[in-house]
Design a protein that fits this description.
The structure holds two protein chains of two kinds. By secondary structure, chain A is an alpha/beta fold. Chain A has helices spanning about 15-25, 40-55, 70-85, 110-115, 130-135, 140-145, 150-155, 175-180, 185-205; strands at about 5-10, 30-35, 60-65, 85-90, 105-110, 120-125, 160-165. In chain A, the strands form two sheets. In chain A, strands 5-4-3-6-7 form a five-stranded parallel sheet. In chain A, strands 1-2 form a two-stranded parallel ribbon. Chain B has helices at about 80-85, 105-120, 140-150, 165-175, 185-190, 200-205, 210-230, 240-250, 260-265, 290-305, 320, 340-345, 355-370, and strands at about 1-5, 10, 15-20, 20-25, 30-35, 45-50, 55-60, 60-65, 90-95, 125-130, 150-155, 180, 195, 210, 230-235, 255-260, 310, 385-395, 415-425, 425-430. In chain B, strands 3-2-7-18-19-20 form a six-stranded mixed sheet, with helices on one face. A four-stranded mixed sheet of chain B has the order 5-4-1-6, with no helix packed on it. In chain B, strands 8-9-10-11 form a four-stranded parallel sheet. The radius of gyration of chain B is 21 Å and the shape is globular. Classes of the chains: A alpha/beta, B alpha/beta. The structure holds zinc ion.
């Protein structure tokens, strides 16, 4: 800490690493993703993107689908979106469902159809290769059949649904290409909003005044 | 040399004694227990006045500690570990074999016993490895280890790897009267887990160790103890399912006993989140479980289905614990906090009486391990723990005799402490704040 930085942006493979650092150094710590714990700026940019499209978050049905157990995007989004009044549904295989997730104020279901039904927002989570080796599910093929976001599934949602993904995507595993590139997708907007939200985060935490 | 412990209340469940008794010690052994033993005409008698609010007990035995020597002397040595033991009220400890080299042969056992004799504080009973290098393949030379002074076998740190090895270990060790102490954890279920699988681990993004990882192994071992007639002891039991299995096993006559640590009957997994999140002093294996498990441990202590309290004293260096939660080693020190925590959280809350506490800390550990002590019956070693049940104690890790300070209980204010620890008639430790002057 001899360099006395004002801010440190931390991305780390261990959950709690930012917490650990914040306790031992004076600089402001921006969590850019710690293990499977949190990814706060992703949640901020997701909420911002939703509000741009819907004008609000209150009472929107948001379905988050995929590897819930290992997702830091999930944990941050659940906290932020429920705080802002959204009706959050989470869906994924039972092998990747974090125990006690309902206590965070979400509805948990293994039926992706129930989760996306009349949804205003569908947020897909990335499936990682090594999960198959951990026997969380049998194959990518089967995963796509049971949980993949297809045009047919999108049709169950509200007509003005938006489709989100924190990237990078596995096309044909959690999401069909025609959905990822289709008319409801706001995935590229998420990327550009991410730049703005992270600039704002740095500005405010470095002591900048609200505009 | 003759000493008389005069006054105070004496509790010795093995003899059914609880009342005002004096203890006469001669040549390191208990010579007599009686009311008002006369002192006149014995000028060489050293009379120790026990304060009225103190309780004289058979020496406490911590049947599960890690002394780290040989191999990990930066964490603890036999000298510092036994100093911590006597300061914590323990006249004897049983040390686990996961040193480097592992205690899987008589020369390591002899080294441990030599170091313990040099330190000259608490008695040390080595526990031998079940298998060579605790690898779970071939049985260690248990007969030789027994002859060298080992009192039980365990691959602690790891479970006894396979059901077949556990079966053989139970069968083979029974001819030496040694129990098999198993660290019950199905490794395939526990995986790379670092915390109890449940709400708090979910929220913090920590990989979970399910309760079932312990429960299936306890079940397996009880079935095998039933099959072989061998004695199986559950190390550091932590979940309610294991307790259920132990109760059922005992009810049908299986030779199964179990121990619980103070942290598992006091703390639960909420500690992972508050007051400090990701505190590596709350990382142990088995992990802190949920409230219902913690409460079940208290119930088991109360109703007698739990046999012993053991600390699972697991010293780690400051630098090893001051890392990310994922990367920190499992375990906390416990020798210097176990007795005050037990008095505060078990006796003063009414979970158990003092008599039952002495069984948990002395009578039962001695009988499970088949070691001397556990009673102040005439002829027994004069190993005595004198406790001050109402003494206010503040845990101060910086003052520990242990070489390590990894405890989640630092700063806790407790009611009840150790007044003096006597091993073989010799005073090894005195707490002056308890009004003692020896
Ligand atoms: Zn263990």
């Amino acid at each position: 800490m001899a360099m006395a930085p004002d801010l440190i942006v931390v991305r780390h493979s261990a959950s709690g690493a930012c917490d650990f650092l914040a306790r031992i150094c004076r600089a402001g710590i921006i969590n850019a993703g710690d293990g499977t714990h949190e990814h706060p700026t992703q949640a901020l940019l997701d909420a911002f993107t939703i509000r741009e499209h819907k004008g609000r978050l209150d009472r929107l049905k948001v379905a988050i689908v995929g590897d819930l157990l290992h997702s830091r995007v999930l944990r941050s989004n659940v906290q932020l979106l429920t705080k802002l009044g959204a009706d959050v549904w989470v869906s994924g295989p039972p092998t990747m469902m974090p125990p006690g997730i309902e206590r965070l104020g979400v509805k948990a279901t293994t039926s992706v159809d129930a989760a996306v039904d009349q949804a205003d927002v569908i947020m897909m989570l990335r499936i990682q290769l090594e999960r198959m080796e951990g026997a969380f599910f049998p194959s990518f093929r089967e995963y796509f059949t049971v949980f993949g976001l297809t045009t047919e599934r999108v049709a169950r949602a509200k007509p003005d649904v938006i489709i989100m993904h924190p990237g990078p995507m596995n096309r044909g595993v959690e999401i069909a290409s025609e959905v990822a590139d289709g008319p409801y997708s706001v995935i590229l907007e998420q990327v550009s909003n991410g730049v703005a939200v992270r600039m704002a985060t740095l500005y405010l935490l470095a002591g900048g005044a609200e505009a | 040399m003759k000493r008389l412990l005069r006054g105070g209340r004496l509790i010795d469940p093995a003899q059914g004694l609880d009342g005002q008794f004096d203890v006469l010690i001669e040549d390191g052994r208990v010579a007599r227990i009686d009311r008002d033993i006369a002192v006149n005409g014995q000028p060489d008698l050293d009379v120790v006045e026990v304060p009225a609010d103190c309780v004289v007990c058979p020496g406490f035995i911590d049947m599960h500690v890690h002394l780290r020597e040989p191999g990990f002397e930066h964490k603890e040595t036999i000298a510092t570990g036994t100093a911590a033991a006597v300061a914590g009220g323990f006249t004897a400890v049983a040390c686990m074999p996961n040193t480097n080299p592992i205690n899987d042969n008589a020369s390591v056992t002899k080294y441990i016993l030599e170091k313990a004799a040099q330190a000259g504080l608490a008695r040390v009973y080595p526990i031998a490895a079940v298998s060579v290098e605790s690898r779970g393949e071939q049985l260690a030379e248990i007969g030789e280890l027994r002859a060298a002074g080992c009192v039980a076998i365990s691959d602690d740190g790891r479970p006894v790897a396979t059901a077949q090895l556990m079966r053989r270990a139970l069968e083979y060790s029974s001819m030496f009267g040694m129990p098999v102490v198993d660290h019950c954890e199905d490794r395939s279920l526990a995986g790379e887990g670092v915390a109890h699988e449940g709400y708090h681990a979910s929220l913090l993004g920590l990989r979970g160790i399910p309760a079932a990882a312990e429960e299936v192994m306890v079940d397996r071992d009880i079935v095998l103890a039933g099959l072989t007639g061998g004695a199986f002891h559950v190390a550091h039991m932590s979940v309610r399912g294991s307790l259920r299995a132990v109760r059922a096993g005992k009810a049908r006559g299986v030779r199964v006993t179990c121990e619980v640590t103070p942290h598992h009957f006091i703390l639960d997994d909420e500690r992972l989140a508050s007051p400090v999140s990701y505190d590596t002093n709350c990382k142990m294996n088995p992990p802190l479980r949920e409230t219902a498990d913690r409460d079940a441990m208290l119930e088991g202590l109360r109703d007698g289905s739990i046999d012993a309290i053991a600390s699972d004293h697991a010293p780690h260096h400051y630098d090893e614990k001051k890392v990310e939660f994922d990367r920190a080693p499992f375990g906390i020190v416990g020798l210097e906090t176990a007795v005050p925590l037990s008095l505060d959280r078990l006796v003063h809350t009414g979970v158990v009486g003092l008599g039952r506490l002495v069984e948990l800390l002395s009578t039962n550990p001695a009988s499970i391990l088949g070691v001397p002590g556990g009673t102040l019956r005439r002829g027994s070693p004069a190993d005595v723990t004198i406790i001050a049940p109402d003494l206010p104690v503040t845990v101060d890790a910086s003052k520990f005799r242990s070489r390590s300070r990894n405890t989640p209980f630092d700063g806790w204010r407790l009611r009840g402490g150790v007044a003096a620890t006597i091993v073989g008639g010799v005073t090894m430790w005195v707490n002056e704040s308890a009004g003692f002057h020896l």
